[in-house]
């Protein structure tokens, strides 16, 4: 087995490396590579933290938006319910006064109102 050698950059002489000569060079090279590896690991860890932070922020924003939209949706649904109840009540009062001479309004007959109630129940599930 041949001993490792290095070439002097100045005089181009080949120098055989005995174990005692090679040990400090190997240690210095190892230390340099370990430092580079440590720097790369830190850079990767920072990128991972950035990704996790961005994802967490996006998830929190999405949850806030969902809650706001659900609140707004519930508010609109209640408003529609009140309008429909008032309209049906007013139509019933007018029917009581005008009798059969009052024309039927699509969507206010009993079947249409029952269909709307069942549709709302399906959506809430």
Characterization of this structure:
The protein is mainly alpha-helical and 125 residues long. The protein has helices at 19-98, 110-124; strands at 5-7, 14-16. The protein has a two-stranded antiparallel ribbon with strand order 1-2. The two termini are 79 Å apart. The protein has 2 helices and 2 strands, in the order ββαα.
Q: Total helix count?
A: 2
Rg of Cα set:
40 Å
**Unreliable stretches, pLDDT < 50, 5 or more residues?**
none
Distance from first to last alpha carbon: 79 Å
Net shape: rod-shaped
Q: Which strand order do you get reading across the main beta sheet?
A: 1-2
Q: Mean pLDDT, rounded to whole units?
A: 84
Spell the H/E element sequence: EEHH
Count of beta strands: 2
Largest sheet composition: 2 strands, antiparallel
Q: How much of the sequence is in beta strands?
A: under 5%
Query: What structural category characterises the helix and strand content?
Result: mainly alpha
* Percent of residues in helices: over 70%
């Amino acid at each position: 087995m041949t001993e490792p050698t290095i070439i002097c950059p100045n005089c181009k002489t080949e120098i055989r490396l005995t174990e005692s000569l090679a040990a400090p060079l190997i240690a210095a090279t190892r230390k340099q590579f370990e430092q580079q590896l440590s720097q790369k690991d830190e850079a990767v860890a920072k990128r991972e933290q950035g990704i996790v932070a961005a994802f967490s922020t996006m998830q929190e924003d999405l949850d806030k938006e969902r809650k706001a939209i659900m609140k707004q949706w519930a508010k609109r649904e209640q408003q529609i319910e009140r309008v429909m109840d008032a309209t049906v009540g007013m139509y019933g009062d007018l029917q009581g006064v005008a009798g059969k001479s009052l024309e039927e309004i699509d969507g206010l007959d009993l079947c249409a109102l029952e269909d709307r109630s069942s549709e709302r129940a399906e959506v809430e599930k």
